[in-house]
Amino acid sequence: MSTTTSETLPQSQRPPHKESKGGLEGIVAATTALSKVEGTAGQLTYCGYTIHDLVRKTLFEEIMHLLWFGHLPNQKELSGFKADLIAERSIPPMVMQVLRDLPASTEPMDALRTAVSAWGALSIKGHPSITQALAVTARFPLFLAAFHRLRRGQEPLESRPELDHAANYLYLLTGQVPKDEHVIGLNAYLVLLADHGMNASTFTARVVASTESDIVSALVAAIGALKGPLHGGAPSKVLDMLDAIGTVDNAERWLRDALARGERLMGFGHRVYKTEDPRAEELREMARVADPQGFVLARRVEELALALLHEQKPERRLYTNVEFYSAVLLASVGLVGDLFTPTFAISRVIGWAAHVLEQVDHNRLIRPEADYTGPTDLHFMPLDER
Ligand code: ACO
Q1: Best of 192, 268, 324 for a ligand 1 pocket test (most atoms within 8 Å of beta carbon)
Q2: Burial call 313-336: b when 16+ CB within 10 Å, e when fewer
Q3: For 235-331, CATH number?
């Protein structure tokens, strides 16, 4: 018996594909119970909780537990979970040697990707699991801080078991027990950035997981996707923009000139949000408190950028995204610009891992199609006749 599907028909007789705007915009690529992004309402929830409730009242470790186990931990669960995480705070000598061998000029995001990959080659076997997710998540800040110190000619430090994830990361970078306000700011940032629907890096991780590859391969691929300026690579460029603008008086001219050159203003616009990103709302308030002086310039630049974008591209509905005030907040806790994107990865790894686990739990290979637009029916000429 022969069956005729659209794939067995000649190209010219196949039904037309659904009109695509490119970039898979508007395409539902997976189901998830992890986070819900409502682009028109400007809402973000993790497993049913709005980020506005979570951001100031939860430890990043609680969000890990929420995304991986599906519920917020009680005190006993949290203590056990934190102990498991602390037990994983070590860098194997082989991975440390890889970090030592990297040139000091290596981008920290590349160093993180390389260290995670080297660690995975050494440590990861078998089906993705929460145990693996925890082991790799615990090490993200260690790899990054070790590389940061090595590139500055300093020796990496041992973790402090009494410090939570955010505080330990800041300690590993500087060797100083961080100020409470810095820990609170960084913890809130990590909570806000932990998961965000089917963003480019999460999609990447799910595609890799769907091939029944391992969790570290999925995370390494996701780090690569996060690195680009259209995704997680924007915040240091926001800082560059604010530095280049310099003063409130210079802001309008600078922004107008940038738009006239056809440049994108970093920290504005979003594929899904057609109103303000709810994370930007929270980060703005934290930046206002963390760096009142820097905030004055950032706020004025934001107001002018929004006015100009609405004036010049009214149909695009461009608003402030998560990256704009991330830059101000991360700078205020003492991070240098090229650590911003890998610090984003320190947060987002828990979302990536949760998506990998969700994908493998009811897996089907992610394998979309492409509309072929090249030539057809060409006459083949052997090499010596061409
Ligand atoms: N500045 C100026 N114009 C912009 C901006 C911006 N920040 N963002 C979008 N536009 C314009 C584009 O030029 C385009 O206009 P045109 O069609 O007249 O040429 C229109 O808006 C639509 O742009 P697209 O690229 O199709 O929108 P898309 O949904 O693909 O882009 C993106 C979303 C990549 C975030 C975009 O808004 C952007 O480049 N922003 C700046 C970089 C940035 O802030 N990245 C961080 C994103 S948040 C995150 O990933 C965590």
Answers
A1: 268
A2: eeeeebbbbbbbbbbbbbbbbbbe
A3: 1.10.230.10
